[in-house]
Amino acid sequence: MGLDWEAIAFVVLSVLEVTFSILLVTSKRLVRAAFWLAATLITVGGIYLLFRAEFVFLIQILVYAGAVPLLFAFGIMLTRRKIMEEPGMEGEK
N or C: which end of the chain has fewer CB within 10 A? Predict the structure, then answer.
């Protein structure tokens, strides 16, 4: 009466997803938030793969986990320069 490997993988991916989501919401820097968003979406894709929804997994990884955080990161880097600087480094150059 052992646990199935799919159940263990589902629990591990779920715990990672909740952890990455909490890190996403509590992150103060936008680039790190985009990274945590990508990590969260990758774990969602892993859960889709466990459910044997290969097409949804592929779309999740390519479009949502790949393109969306990349667009966020480029948008952050190209629009506002002050966001990328560390707090407390205004006078140092």
Answer: N
What single-letter amino acid sits at 75?
Answer: G
Note the pTM of the prediction, 2 decimals.
Answer: 0.78
Q: The tokens of 41 are what? A: 């979406």
Rounded-to-5 percentages of helix, strand, coil across the chain: 75, 0, 25
pLDDT tens-digit series, residues 13-37: 999 999 999 999 999 988 899 899 9
Dist. CA 20–CA 4, nearest whole Å: 25
Give the C-alpha separation, 71 to 21, whole Å.
Answer: 19
Whole-angstrom CA distances from 41 to 2, 34, 36, 80, 86 are: 30, 11, 9, 25, 27
